[in-house]
TrEMBL record:
The lineage of its organism: Bacteria, Bacillati, Bacillota, Bacilli, Lactobacillales. It catalyses: N(1)-(5-phospho-beta-D-ribosyl)glycinamide + (6R)-10-formyltetrahydrofolate = N(2)-formyl-N(1)-(5-phospho-beta-D-ribosyl)glycinamide + (6S)-5,6,7,8-tetrahydrofolate + H(+). Its EC number is 2.1.2.2. (6R)-10-formyltetrahydrofolate binds at R64, N106. One of its GO terms (biological process) is 'de novo' IMP biosynthetic process. One of its GO terms (cellular component) is cytosol. The keyword Disulfide bond does not apply. Residues 1-181 form the Formyl transferase N-terminal domain. The record marks D144 as: Raises pKa of active site His. This is Phosphoribosylglycinamide formyltransferase. Belongs to the GART family. It comes from the Bacteria. It is an enzyme of class 2 (transferase).
Length: 192
């Protein structure tokens, strides 16, 4: 199963997927990392795993539609089946959605619909909620909306700081994203 991963920043989710031999053995092929931030650390991670990188900057295009069209032109020859968003900090427009309907998956560090959008972990921590979590979902045109594939809770411990809570959320994300992709691979392998 050929995928493209989209990321904008650190890339810990990207690396959790890229380093998994279980996923590779089950047929995952990461054809390209699409990154909108030339300085993002995720690019270094991709180089470590010899995964091709395409940096596509929104500021190089007149509007979001043209920006996504440029991305589509890079994906088409690679015969990408799924797009995995892993810390991709942009709203996807109907241009990309129309090209890959029901085949774009996002991970978000909260129990959606709570704390959608930016700084979800910070806002969940500030809210004092005893339980937060992670959501993996197919995307639609909204911000962190669309059919949910999997949600897991992360309990806030009494002594948690924002950093310790964030650390456990990221650990949960990495494990969850691998499992969701594995389920997808197994389903695809069964369908063939
Ligand atoms: C992750 O927590 C991911 O859920 C979040 O960005 C972080 C990226 O971390 N995504 C969103 O908030 C999307 N709305 P990473 O770069 O270390 O994978």
């Amino acid at each position: 199963m050929k995928v493209a991963i989209f990321a904008s920043g650190n890339g810990s989710n990207f690396e959790a997927i890229a380093k998994s031999t279980e996923l590779r053995n089950a047929g995952l092929e990461i054809e390209v990392l699409i990154c909108d931030q030339p300085q993002a650390h995720v690019i270094k991670r991709a180089e470590k795993y010899h995964i091709p990188v395409e940096v596509v900057k929104l500021s190089d295009y007149d509007n979001r539609g043209l920006y996504e069209q440029a991305i589509i032109e890079k994906l088409k020859p690679l015969q990408i089946e799924y797009i995995l968003l892993a810390g991709y900090m942009r709203v996807v427009t109907p241009v990309l959605l129309g090209e890959y309907p029901n085949h774009i998956i996002n991970i978000h560090p909260s129990l959606l619909p709570k704390f959608s959008g930016l700084e979800a972990i910070e806002r969940a921590f500030a809210s004092g909620d005893k339980v937060t979590g992670v959501t993996i979902h197919y995307i639609d045109e909204g911000v962190d909306t669309g059919p949910i594939i999997k949600q897991c809770q992360v309990v806030r411990l009494q002594n948690d700081t924002e950093e310790t809570l964030e650390h456990r959320i990221h650990q949960t994300e990495h494990q969850m994203y691998r499992q969701v992709i594995l389920d997808l691979l197994n389903k695809n392998n069964g369908d063939k």
